[in-house]
Amino acid sequence: MLRHALHRVALAVPVMFGVLLIGFMLMQIVPTDPATVRAGPTATQEVVAAIRAELGLDKPIWVQFGLYLGRLAQGDLGVSIINNMPVTQELATTIGPTVELMFASLLWSIPLGIFLGTVAAYWRGSLLDRAIMAVSVAGVSVPVFFLGLVLIWFVGFQWQLLPFTGREGPLWTWEGIRAIILPALTLGGVLVGPVARMTRTAVVDTLSADHVRTARAKGLNERLVVLRHALRNALIPVVTLIGLQIGFLLGGAVVTETIFSWPGVGRLAVGAILSADFPLAQGTIIVLSAGFILVNLIVDLLYAVLDPRVRQG
Amino acid sequence: MSGTTLDDASAPAAPARPSALRMLLRDIGGAFSLILVILIVLLAVLAPWLAPHDPFATDLMAVMEPPSARYWFGTDGQGRDIFSRMLFGLRVTLGMGLASLVAGGLIGAVVGFCAAYYRRLDGLLMRLMDMLLSFPAILFGLALAAIFGPGLTSVIIALSIATVPLMARIVRSAALVVMGLDYIEAARAIGMNDRRLIFRHLAPNCLSSVFVFSTLRLGQVILLGSALSFLGLGAQPPTAELGAMAAQGRNFLFIAPHISVIPSLGIFVIVLAFNLLGDALRDALDPRLRL
Amino acid sequence: MTRFWHRATLGGLAAMGLALVAGQAQAQPRNQITIMREIDADRYDPHRSTALAAGEVITMLSDTLVSMDYDMRTIRPGLAERWEVSPDGLTYTFHLRQGVTFCDGKPFTAEDMAFSLNRWIGRTTPRVTSPVAWRAGDVKEIRASGPHTLVYELNRPFSELLPNLALFFGSAVDPATVERLGDNFGVQGFNGTGPFCWQSWTPRNELVLTRHPNYRWGPPVLQNQGPAHVERIVWRVIPEAASRVAALQAGQADLTQFIPDAFIETLRRSPNIVISNQPNYLWDTYLGFKVDRPVANDIAIRRAFHMAVDRPAMVRAVWSGNATPARGIINPTALDYYAPADELVPAYDPAAARRMLDEAGWRVGPDGIRVKDGQRATLTLFAINNLVNQRLGEIIQQAVRQVGIELRVQLFDATVAWGRLASQDFDVLFLSYPYISASDALNLYWHSRSRPTPNRMNWNNPQTDRWLEDGRAATDPAVRAQAMANLQRQLNEASAWMNIAHNNLNLFANRRVEGARAHGLYGISIYKGLDLRIR
C-alpha cells in the first residue's frame, strides 16, 4: 500500500514540475517588463529597478526559475496585467464556484449514470439496454455548448423557469441552488453517457464472476444479487474511471462556465488567455493542473484502499 | 495512473477473420454510421462544388434570415450562407481533427513500438506517457493558446500532444502480444533486422487496434477542438469552423437560434457518426479492446 | 455506498424540483437594483481611468463641479452652486455647495476639490497621469481661495472648459483615502461625494454600491436631489449578450444599456421592458486610415473604401436599424456641425471606385488584388474584438475585395487592443468614441500633437492645428463655428476617416424599476441613479 502510494506521488512530482515549467515560460513571454507591471504605471525608475532586483530579473534564467518556484511556494503567482490584482486573490474567489459547479454536476449525473448502466447490464441485449446505450453514445458525442445553448433557449429563455446568468449566491441559499441548476445539468449531461457505459461494462463483467454465480446458485433473490454483489464490485472500477473523467469534466466546466457566465477558474482562464494576461493565465493553468493532479492522486489512492488486489500489486 | 487497466484489457489483434467489412455491415448501426461518415467526408471534399454560395460573401439585405429555399440553413449575422459556411467549416473541422490525429498518432505509434520492442526503454517511455496522460486535453489547449496565442495551430498541437500517450499505449500492448508469438522470436533469433521485423510483422498486426482507436479518437478530437474554437481559442474569424460559427451565433441565440444551433448540431452528427462507427468497428475487429 | 448514492440522488432531485416550482419568483432582494454590463473596468479611479465601464460607476460614486443637462448642451450646477468667468476667459471662480460630505462622513471642502482636479492634471505627488488631462484646459493654477471657493486659472482661454468639467474625469475624491490606498485607490476602495458608496468589488464579476444616506446635493437636472431611493446597486458583468437580454426579461436584473441592436425589436415588443432613448447622443463608430502608411496614404484608396462599402445597408445590418449611417465626420446633432462639408464625402458606387482606382494606376493583379508600382493594395486592420467590429470587419473586408483591395482583419481583446492600436503596425482601424461637440471631437483626434494616440491617423497638418487652436481659444462662438466648419471641410475632403455610424443610446429597464432615463454624457446612460426606484 505504502509502496503504491509512494509510486503515485513520485509520478505526480515530475508532472507538477512540468506544469510549473509551462507556467514559468508563460511569465517569460510577457510582452512588457514584469517589473513595470508590478510597479504600476506611476512608479519611478528607481522603484522599477528595485522590483527588478527583488524579482531577480537581472539573474540567469535558471536562477529566475528557482526564484519563481520560491515565490510560488509562498503563494505569490504574480500580478494580473489587466487590473494589477494579485493573481492568487483572483484565483481564491473563482475556485469555490468551480468546485461548486463540478460537485453539483457529479451529484446527479453519476448516480443517474450508474443507475442506467446497471439497468442496461441487468437486461442486457434487451430493447431497454439498446435504448440506454444509444442515449449514452449520443451523450458522449454531444458538444457541451450545444447542450448549454439548448437548455438556455428552452428552460431559461422560452419558459423562463430558471436563471442562466451566473452564480447568484452560495449553494445553501435558494438563489444559489436555482442558479446552479442549468449549468449543473449542462455539465453533468455530458457525463451521464460515459458513466453509464462504464458501469454497464463493469456490471456485465461482475455478473458473470464466480462469487455472483455462487450467490445466485444459493438461491438469493436476483435483485439482491445485483445490488449486493455485482454492483458493489463493479463500483470499484467505476469509481476510478470516474476519477479519470475529471479531465473530461474540467473541459466541460471551462465551456459551461463561459456559456453561463459562471465566475469560475475556467472562465477566468479563457478570459486571461484571450486578453493575453500572462500572469493570470499562468495562475489559472497551474491551479487547474494542480487540482487535477491532486484529484487523480486521491482517486488512485482511494482505489488502492477499496481494492485489495492493487494494494498487493 | 489507473489507466493501466487499459493494458490488461486491450487484447491481441483479432485473428484474421473472413471479412471485417462484412461483419461491420451486418450491424445496422455500423452500416448506418459508415454511410454517414462517408457522406460527411464527401461533403467536406466536394465543398467548393457543392456550396451554393460563396462562404464569405455577405448579403446585407438578408441578415440573420431563417432557413429558406434560397439559404437552406439560413444566413448568419453578416448575411453569409450558413449551409455553404458549414460545408467549408466541415473541411476545417475535419482537417483539424485529422491533422492532430495523424501527428499525435504517428508519434504515439513510434513511442509504443519502441516501448514494446526495446524492452529497456519501456519503463521510461511509459512513465513519460503516464505523465502526459495525467493531463486533460483541455489544459493542453489552454496552455498552448496562452503560449502561442489563440489559433488553429495551437489547437492542433494541443490535440496532437493529448493523442500521443493514448496511441502509444494501444500500439504498445498490441505489439507486446505479437512479440510474444513464436515466429517473432524465431525471426529475431535468426537475426532479422529490427526495421523489417517492425514493418513486416509488428505493424500489420497492430492495425486493427489502431484503426478502431483512431476512429473513436477522431470523434473526441473534433469535439475538443470545436469546444476550443467555441471558446475563441481556436479558429479565428472569418474562418468557417463549426465551433467558431456556433460561438458567433450564440450572440443571436434568442432572435436567430439557427445560427448557433445548426453548426452545433453539425458537430454532434459528425462526432456521433465517428463514435458509432468506432463502436461498430470494435465489435467487428477487436471486441476486447476497451477505449 | 449504494445507500449513500440513493440519498444523494433523492436530495439533489428534491432540491431541483423545489427550485423549479419556484420558477417565476423574483430573485432580486428588495430595494436593490442590478445593472448589467458587458465588461469590467481595470480600476475605478477618475483620474486614471477613461473607460466607460469605469465612468458609469464613478458618476455614482462621486460628483463633478458642474453637471450636464439631458440636452447635452446646457451646463447646470453640480458641486459648484454657481460660478463666474472673467471677461478674458482665463479665470473661473466656483462657489461650492456647503454641507457636502464624503461617504465616510468627512466634510467636503474647496481644498479637496482643488486636490482632485490637480490630481487629474498630474500636479499632485505621487503623480498620476490621466490620458485626458488635456480636457482640463491649459491650466495655470487651481487653488482653494476659501473653504468653499475654488479659483481655476488658465493660461489660454478654453471655450469648452465647463462641459469638460462635467465629465467624470474631474470627480471629487477624498485626499486622505487616496493617500491611504495609494496605487489601490479605486481598486480596494473609494471615497467620494456621490449618491452611492463603494461596498465591494470582485473584478470581472460584480461591484456593489450602497446608498450614501446623507446625500442631498444631486444635480438639478434630476428629479430627486437625494438621498437615492435605492439602497443597493449591484453592477454585474455578464459578457454574454443573450444572457443579458434574458436576465432583463426574467427580472433577474433591472437595467442595462448593453443590448445588441438585433435584440431591440424583440424587447420593444416585450411587455415588461421599458426603453428610454436619448436622441442627443454623440457616439460615433469610425474607420480611420493611417495617412502616412504606404497604400493608405493614397487618397484614391481611401476614397475607394467610401465608394465600395454600402454604409447605409451595412449600418442597417450590423445595428439592425438602431443607428444612423454616418456621412461626414461629425454628427448632425452636434454643436458646430457644418452640413455643406458632408457633400464632399464620396457616396456608395463600387463601379466608380474601380474606375477611379484604374485611373490612379492601381492595376488588378492575377489574384484580383490591385497593384501599383509593385505595391499590393493590402491593408491591415486592427480593432477591438467585439461583435460589432467582427461583423463590420467581415463585411468591409468582403466589400473592398470587390474593388480589388485586400483587407486583413485582426481583432484583439479589449485589454490588448489599446496597446496594439497605439502601435504603427497597421493601416486601418475601427474605433467608436463619445464626444460633446464638433470642437471636442476634432480636438481629440486631429491635432499633430495628439500623435501617436489618439491621433492614430498620424494626421499632421499645420493648417489643421491652427484652426483647432483658434476654435479652442475662441471666446466668440461664431469664431469657433467658423474654424470647425473649415476643419470639417478639410477632413471630409481628405477622406482620412470613413465615419460609419452615429450610435443610438437606449437604456433598457425591467418594469420593476422606474425613473430610468438615458442620459448619455460620455456614453454613460445612468446619470447618478438618484431617480431610480423600485415600482
Fold blueprint:
The complex is a heterotrimer of chains A (313), B (291) and C (535).
Chain A: H1 2-28, H2 34-39, H3 45-55, H4 61-73, H5 87-122, H6 127-141, H7 144-158, H8 174-207, H9 210-217, H10 222-259, H11 265-274, H12 278-306, H13 308-312
Chain B: H1 5-9, H2 20-26, H3 28-45, H4 47-50, H5 82-117, H6 119-133, H7 137-148, H8 152-180, H9 182-189, H10 194-230, H11 242-250, H12 258-285
Helix pairs in contact in B: 2-12, 3-5, 3-12, 5-6, 5-8, 5-10, 6-8, 7-8, 8-10, 10-11, 10-12, 11-12
Chain C: H1 2-21, E1 32-37, H2 52-61, E2 66-68, E3 75-77, E4 80-85, E5 91-96, H3 110-120, E6 139-146, E7 149-154, H4 161-165, H5 175-181, E8 196-202, E9 206-211, E10 232-237, H6 241-250, E11 255-256, H7 261-269, E12 273-278, E13 283-289, H8 299-308, H9 311-319, E14 323-325, H10 350-359, E15 363-364, E16 370-372, E17 375-376, E18 378-384, H11 387-401, E19 406-412, H12 414-421, E20 428-434, H13 438-446, H14 462-473, H15 477-494, E21 497-503, E22 505-510, E23 513-514, E24 533-534
Parallel strand pairs in C: 1-10, 18-19, 18-20
Antiparallel strand pairs in C: 2-3, 4-5, 5-7, 6-7, 8-9, 9-10, 11-22, 12-22, 13-20, 13-21, 14-21, 15-16, 16-17, 23-24
Word description of this protein:
Chain C: One of its GO terms (molecular function) is peptide transmembrane transporter activity. Chain C: It comes from Neoroseomonas alkaliterrae. Chain C: InterPro entries: Peptide/Ni-bd, SBP_5, SBP_5_dom. Chain C: Keywords: Signal. The complex is a heterotrimer of chains A (about 325), B (about 290) and C (about 525). By secondary structure, chain A is mainly α. Chain A has 13 helices and no strands. Helix content of chain A is about 80%, strand content about 0%. In chain A, helix 5 (about 85-120) crosses helix 8 (about 175-205) and helix 5 packs antiparallel against helix 10. The radius of gyration of chain A is 24 Å and the shape is flat. Chain B has a single domain, classed as MetI-like fold, CATH 1.10.3720.10. Chain B is built from 12 helices and no strands. Chain C is of the alpha+beta class and about 525 residues long. Chain C folds into 2 domains: about 10-275 and about 505-535, Periplasmic binding protein-like II (D-Maltodextrin-Binding Protein, domain 2, 3-Layer(aba) Sandwich), CATH 3.40.190; about 285-505, Dipeptide-binding Protein, domain 3, CATH 3.10.105. Chain C is about 30% helix and about 20% strand. Chain C has helices at about 1-20, 50-60, 110-120, 160-165, 175-180, 240-250, 260-270, 300-310, 310-320, 350-360, 385-400, 415-420, 440-445, 460-475, 475-495, and strands at about 30-35, 65-70, 75, 80-85, 90-95, 140-145, 150-155, 195-200, 205-210, 230-235, 255, 275-280, 285-290, 325, 365, 370, 375, 380-385, 405-410, 430-435, 495-505, 505-510, 515, 535. The model of chain C is unreliable at about 1-25 (pLDDT under 50). Chains A and B meet through helix 1, helix 6, helix 7, helix 10 and helix 11 of A and helix 6, helix 7, helix 10, helix 11 and helix 12 of B.
